[in-house]
């Protein structure tokens, strides 16, 4: 049987991570995976998370099965955080815990395949590297829409022009904030126009929320999702707690479905449960219990928000510092592009061959598309990365 297995494609991010691990140069710098790191290169456990874990350990609750929807307190907390609590869109929404944001994307993709056979799902170009594989694995057709222009700005005209072609039964996957990989987000006016387009043409927004709190602040980063929820009858939301709670390996996420009314949701949770049952049965408890404990306690929630704001400030300082260094090295145009971006990632103005030279000559690892994890950049290495970027640009006379 195994002799018949053809060579499968490798995951580009993990392939680069393995190459980094095999690199013997002590100065090598891993800016590939989207993981927050402090200036020591460590991914810290947030103080609010650690305190919640201590409280959970003292309680020593049973580890019996939670059920296919996971931790219900976590699900309630996610609805309140994302949609603003009772009295609004949350009253016509249902949530189930998932295996992180990727698990939420897959469960919701399965729901689309079941309820809208033949639907096309539109994704941005470029998109998060796992969007297309997840959607196609669920049996869905995928098309792309424009996202950013050649100057690294939001291509609002191209975005709206492309999505005007989306049909009533189609689904449009939108990153709610801090777009991965570009770091480019639409303006508030553009989000308003997108919401109007969805309402008029009848396509369903499918929002991927993985970086809320790391762009302009938690409430600001959720504003586009809440706007869409107010304007459209149906919406899907995949939520990750990996980045803003630092729960990367605990695989904590949530799938949210909004309907035109509470009655329209009567079969949704069961459908999501059935999909989960065939994929992984039920999600792990620990991370969800931690998030629920943090969000249900005023003190822990305040501590978490302060820590999240501190992470966001450090990311902004890294990006500003890199832009300033590039400008000082005679690259003001490239610096201006970087300065406009937000969130964990930045797109360097480098081609694939230039990114390879950045890796081979300066030991800086990013994706061949130019994406680097600005949240993983130590402050004392900013100047070195700037010199590398300016160096490879200079080699080509750019």
From TrEMBL:
Keywords from the named record: Aminotransferase, Pyridoxal phosphate, Transferase
Highest taxon listed in the record's lineage: Bacteria
Cofactor(s) required, per the database record: pyridoxal 5'-phosphate
Coiled coil segments of this chain: none
Xref: InterPro entries: Aminotransferase_I/II_large, Asp_trans, PyrdxlP-dep_Trfase, PyrdxlP-dep_Trfase_major, PyrdxlP-dep_Trfase_small
Domain Aminotransferase class I/classII large: 29-383
Subunit (UniProt): Homodimer.
Record-linked PANTHER family: ASPARTATE AMINOTRANSFERASE, ASPARTATE AMINOTRANSFERASE, MITOCHONDRIAL
Stored NCBIfam families: PRK09257.1
Family affiliation: Belongs to the class-I pyridoxal-phosphate-dependent aminotransferase family.
Protein name, as recorded: Aromatic amino acid transaminase
Organism expressing this protein natively: Streptomyces toxytricini (Actinomyces toxytricini)
